[in-house]
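Sorry to interrupt, but I need a hand with the structure work. Leave the record below and I will have a look:
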Amino acid sequence: MRVLFNSRAKHDYLADALTLLSGWTREGEQIRRTLAIDDTQHAALTERVKVVADALHLRPEISRQSDSTQIRVGHGNGEPLTEGEVLLAARIEDAYRAVTEP
């Protein structure tokens, strides 16, 4: 069965989903996460994120700054966050756990 969401219900659904993603902060129509990982973990994370992002047809911004990796998901041009972008953030969390667990 397919459920139709009106725009308000969709917004509430995304807001609820974002609360489950600890460490992510919302900046307008983008979400951001900073991860304290080394260069090797950064490279592994970037490769994993690229595979998922390509499958979802999304382009997150990933940058390395001294001892941390910063990730931004969303368009930032006034377009609201989509389900795919929130899903990408959740998959990034999975990838982060995979590259940092012993």
User: Anything to note?
Assistant: The CA atoms of residues 41 and 102 lie 12 Å apart. The two ends are 41 Å apart (CA to CA). The beta strands are 25-27, 30-35, 61-65, 68-73.
